[in-house]
Amino acid sequence: MAASVLRGFRRVAPRTVVHGKVSVFSDMCLGGVRQKSTVQYVTRPDLPKLAYRKVKGKSPGVVFLPGFASSMAGLKAEALEEFCKSLGHAFLRFDYTGCGASEGVWTDCSLGSWKRDVLYVLDELVEGPQILVGSSMGGWLMLLAAIARPEKTDALVGIATAADHFVTAFKSLPIEEAESHCVLQGPIPVTCPVRLIHGLKDPDVPWHISMQVAERVLSNDVDIILRKHGQHRMSDKDDVKLMVYTIDDLIDKLTTMA
What we know:
This protein is of the alpha/beta class. Helix content is 33%, strand content 23%. The strands form 2 sheets. Strands 3-4-6-5-7-8-9-10 form an 8-stranded mixed β-sheet, sandwiched between helices. Helix 3 (111-125) packs across helix 4 (137-148). The radius of gyration is 17 Å and the shape is globular. The two termini are 21 Å apart. The model is unreliable at 1-25 (pLDDT under 50).
């Protein structure tokens, strides 16, 4: 996987050489001072408004799915937006119902309602198949979305994927609704390319969950990247670079196949 990730370096600008190594994107891609996309709101019949930021561009587009109780304002989401801008590819990040800038009451939400948000984004706010990038709970939601909308899913990138984690880690909570969305009991009918990045030092979601996902997806194109010192948020500069390089490699792969 490392070699394939490195192949994607060539298409990102600007490039500088530091200690003999190529640095392929600037610090502005890591939460710098570039102007951000504008927050927009979409009105849905009988449902709270969703807040999102969208960059128009080429296909495949990239959609970022935040983690539990997180928002689209995180470092990984902002870095991905700047990266997609640099390549001219479409990008969208959004807040789930009850989170961030979206309407709704967080305590009234469920995994099912957040899955509905993701499917609405894929159905109404983006065009064509997308690379779904899911962080923590967003990784669980990206799998559910890929199962429900295979025609809208070109590839998956999971970061500390928390598949089934609410059910296995919080058995004492009233989580019956989340149980209906578990995916690890059997084969996961996902056949697109899948990349799973996980930190071995993750104190919240054990890295072996990513291994279980890799074993159960039906795709033959699956890579797992384990970061020796990686924590759960995977927001260190090198972690964010790895995420960006992985997505760049997937874009290269998908556009070559097309």
